[in-house]
Amino acid sequence: MVVNAFILSLSGAALWGLSGTASDALFRIFGMNPLALLGARMTIAGGLMLLIFRPKFPWEMKFLFLLYTATSIILQFSYLETIYLSSAPTATFLQFMYFPMVVIYEVLRRKLKSGLRITLGLISAMAGITLLTVDFEGGLRISFAALVIGLICAASAAAYTILSSPLVQKYGSKTIVSWSFALGSIVAFPIGYGSLSRFLTSMPEDELIEAILLIIFVSIFGTLIAFTLYSQGMKHISSSSASVAGSLEPVSASLSSSIFLGEVLGPLQYVGGFLIICSIILSQLGISKQKKTGNKIRKFIKLRVK
Q1: From CA 194, how far away is CA 36, in angstroms rounded?
Q2: To bridge 43 with a disulfide, which of 185, 193, 220, 246 should be the other Cys (CB 3.0-4.6 Å)?
Q3: With contact defined as beta carbons under 8 Å apart, do 279 and 252 qualify?
Q4: Does residue 97 contact residue 154 with C-beta atoms inside 8 Å?
């Protein structure tokens, strides 16, 4: 059971990574706008989630849920925009900085103690983002805009994770994610409709079919199915195992981007990405030692949506 659950979580994380590469292909090869993809993705995935899961709306915590949904929209857009400005692997590694941010937040609130493993995890995260983004000849490896929006993506993912905790405990992840995508589409689709309409009507028929297939892949396989596989696996494995399974996402994004798009990061950037992943695993190991507060904090990694 545990092995099968771990494989489910790995599969979900791998699909998230492939989804990032598919989004990158839509931007670079077909010229799609991130806002257009955001609207299409949230509408398709949100509608299907409501049809399949049939969740009840979280009325009792509606104000917290609306704040969570707003954070989700920012997270989804900033992730796609970071891909647009850099690459899928870079955007994924930057987003993974969310977990060190959550740990810092809990340490400042004195919900966690800053032990050796947590300290080493935070140092690893700082070293990782430095290697990922800084050119030691005096500049940045990515554009300044990509770095800023990537950090906004990580910060919104941290806020998203913290806000999700009481909501998921009361209603479950399927209810929260389904309704956040559905409501988010009410905002995202009108904003992106103009770009989406121009994109679909101006493209040659042979390219249009390929682009639509990629949009469907991102919306269904890279969102709905990825979330379902990952969340089902999370029910039967530990948070430490979840962090290991989740680390397949940037690996999947890196490999698929290299194979399908020819995008390769520099050696030090891969080392930086590896250090960011290590920071999450080290922090999880440190959290697991703090039983009273650790049990709550470990739940943060249970909900992952891209």
Answers
A1: 8
A2: 185
A3: no
A4: yes
pTM of the model: 0.91
Q: Which pair of structure tokens corresponds to residue 213? A: 């297939």
Taking only the tens place, the pLDDT of each residue in 144-179 is 999 999 999 999 999 988 888 888 889 988 899 999
Position 173: which residue type?
S
Do 173 and 302 touch, CB atoms closer than 8 A? yes
Q: In Å, how far are 49, 98, 142, 145, 152 from 148, measured between CA atoms?
A: 32, 14, 10, 5, 6
User: Using H for helix, E for strand and C for coil, what is the string for the chain?
Assistant: CHHHHHHHHHHHHHHHHHHHHHHHHHHHCCCCCHHHHHHHHHHHHHHHHHHHHCCCCCHHHHHHHHHHHHHHHHHHHHHHHHHHHCCHHHHHHHHCCHHHHHHHHHHHCCCCCCCHHHHHHHHHHHHHHHHHHEECCCEECCCHHHHHHHHHHHHHHHHHHHHHHHHHHHHCHHHHHHHHHHHHHHHHHHHHHHHHHHHHHCCCHHHHHHHHHHHHHHHHHHHHHHHHHHHHHHCCCCHHHHHHHHCHHHHHHHHHHHHHHCCCCCHHHHHHHHHHHHHHHHHHHHHHCCHHHHHHHHHHHHCCCC
Residues 122, 280: Cα–Cα separation, whole Å: 9
> Residue 93 corresponds to which amino acid?
F
What are the tens digits of pLDDT across the range 177-223? 999 999 999 999 999 999 999 999 998 888 999 999 999 999 999 99
Contact between residue 193 and residue 38 where contact means Cβ atoms under 8 Å apart: no
Domain boundaries defined on the chain: 2-302
